[in-house]
Amino acid sequence: MVKWQFFDFNMGKGIKKIFTFMILLIGLSACTVRSTTEIYDTFDATSSLLGEKHDIPPIMLYPKNIFLKDSFLVVFNEKIDTCFQVFDKIGFGYKYAFGIKGEGPDDLILPASQLVANNHNETIVLDMNRFKKISFVNDQPTISNLEFSGAQPFYNGLIKLTDSLYICDSGLEEENEYAFIYPNGELKK
Residue 156 carries which DSSP code? Predict the structure, then answer.
């Protein structure tokens, strides 16, 4: 029978201390993270921006959202009677306003301050539990109703993720911070 013995307890105390110190040193150095500093003298690609100062009309001072549509700069502020103001994108000249508050088919009852979707294809505002789509045809705005199968009367912070999936704030008292709204109106927290 072969007996493997790695540590002889009869060795001198000095050798035991050296052996223990070496094991400890190897163990600690294996776990050490070495920090490195990288210094860049130049960058491969550079860009520069030139800022220009433009005087803007006072009506544009407190917007909730600003977005571009074709040659227009559209300012959204749900706190005034006409929610959308349209300006020229180049010189910021005032063109017209649209989106009055009321209860007509194209009116806004209580628009949310955050846009649900805002991209090149569509701009959507949540108005109570209805969607209002803002589009421009021949430089004239149109507001149309979109179908939305939400079960609640209002959603805070509603954002469109995909064609049929939305996310919103679930509420302060809830375990999860956000909730998903599915096409059938189901709300999952």
Answer: T
